[in-house]
Design a protein that fits this description.
Elements: E1 3-5, E2 13-15, H1 19-22, H2 26-29, H3 42-47, E3 54-57, H4 64-72, E4 78-83, H5 86-99, E5 104-108, E6 120-126, H6 148-168, E7 169-179, H7 188-197, E8 200-202, H8 207-210, E9 215-216, E10 224-226, E11 235-242
Parallel strand pairs: 3-4, 3-6, 4-5, 6-7
Antiparallel strand pairs: 1-2, 7-11, 8-11, 9-10, 10-11
Helix pairs in contact: 6-7
Length: 244
């Protein structure tokens, strides 16, 4: 088996085997590894949580980022994971159990409608999006699903989710907003709109991490947009601090 450790995250490995071969491995069956894109591993790392925190994962299914957060903290953190779809919720619960993420509490809930009396030390909002950063342009079938209607629907949901996230984030604390899109209308423009309306500001992403990533230019200083490559999916990440 051809396994290569990846630089910016000690627990990230590239396995150059077929998916069928990987799924036969005991370490896969036992939940000791989770198959995930490199770009998707970034938001939990950027969030940079600490032991004992109350953390919210607003759009958690299928659970890759949720279980990564739990692994980073060795379950010494309290994670609430939300998913509104019943089928996706079951998949989330399955992955949480398989990965041994015992610190996670799951709720079937539309994150836009979570009660305002909740408050969290840290929030991960990996928002639903058009998926523009994951499109294979050599496959023309994407034209059937990647539409203006999808983009408009996504931006409406993204804006509502980010506003809700800042409402239930404790003063002085941070959240991460991310999408697997490279479109400014789903990324910088959403964050910029909320920053104007809410008492919050961008916390620039760690420079050491940035230098190790293939990046596209962004129009909002301190945010990053990962360029789609052979190894990476297109991915936008912003870290936002709520004022005290």
């Amino acid at each position: 088996m051809n396994i290569k450790q990846f630089g910016w995250y000690k627990d990230a490995f590239i396995i150059n085997n077929t998916l069928k071969d990987i799924k036969k491995l005991d370490i896969y069956e036992n939940g000791e590894i989770y198959l995930q894109s490199l770009s998707s591993m970034l938001p939990p790392i950027v969030l940079n949580i600490s032991e004992g925190m109350d953390v919210l994962d607003m759009c958690a299914a299928p659970g890759g980022k949720t279980t990564e957060l739990a692994a980073l903290m060795q379950n010494k953190v309290n994670i609430t994971a939300l998913e509104m779809n019943a089928i996706r919720l079951e998949r989330l619960k399955y992955n949480i159990e398989k990965q041994g993420a015992s610190c996670v509490f799951c709720m079937q809930k539309d994150a836009r409608k979570i009660d305002d009396f909740f408050s969290f030390d840290s929030i991960l909002l990996d928002a639903p999006c058009s998926g523009s950063g994951t499109i294979n342009i050599s496959d023309n079938t994407f034209k059937n699903t990647f539409t203006e209607k999808l983009i408009n629907k996504s931006t409406t949901v993204q804006l509502a989710l980010l506003k809700k996230a800042l409402k239930i984030l404790k003063p002085g604390k941070e959240l991460v907003y991310s999408t697997c899109s490279i479109l400014s209308c789903e990324n910088e423009e959403i964050v910029r709109k909320v920053l104007k309306e809410e008492n919050a500001e961008i916390d620039p992403i760690n420079e050491e991490l940035i230098t190790q990533l293939p990046l596209l230019e962004t129009s909002l200083k301190g945010t990053i947009c990962v360029c789609p490559t052979e190894l990476y999916e297109g991915f936008f990440i912003a870290k936002v601090r709520k004022s005290k």
